[in-house]
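PROTEIN DESIGN WORKSHEET
SECTION A - STRUCTURE
LENGTH: 106
TOKENS:
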């Protein structure tokens, strides 16, 4: 190998390493859910939403006034089913969007 090649290869490796170190993380910043409450007398919380079947795997029933979270415009809503965080057991599920209200009330 020529002396020029000995200089170019380390320079290329250094540049490639810098690019790898400067690449942004693949993780997105999570959006903290806005505080809300259940405004229906009861609301079913499902584990997931399947576009072909609708909500699947009932987790539990939430009652009026239960503290939940959903950020409008950031968390998904599929056919009226909103991704919702239940602050009681600290887990996610899907609830009918019309059962969410009282944003910022607590």
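SECTION B - SEQUENCE
RESIDUE ASSIGNMENT:
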């Amino acid at each position: 190998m020529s002396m020029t090649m000995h200089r170019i290869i380390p320079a290329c490796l250094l540049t490639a390493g810098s690019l790898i170190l400067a690449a942004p993380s693949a993780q997105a910043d999570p959006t903290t859910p806005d505080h809300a409450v259940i405004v229906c007398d009861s609301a079913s919380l499902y584990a997931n939403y399947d576009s072909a079947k609708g909500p699947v795997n009932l987790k539990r029933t939430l009652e009026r006034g239960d503290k939940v979270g959903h950020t409008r415009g950031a968390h998904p809503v599929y056919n009226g089913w909103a991704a919702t965080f239940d602050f009681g057991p600290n887990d996610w599920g899907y609830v009918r969007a019309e059962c969410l209200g009282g944003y910022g009330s607590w």
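SECTION C - NOTES
Residues 12-28 have pLDDT under 50 and may be disordered.
The first strand starts at residue 35 and ends at 38.
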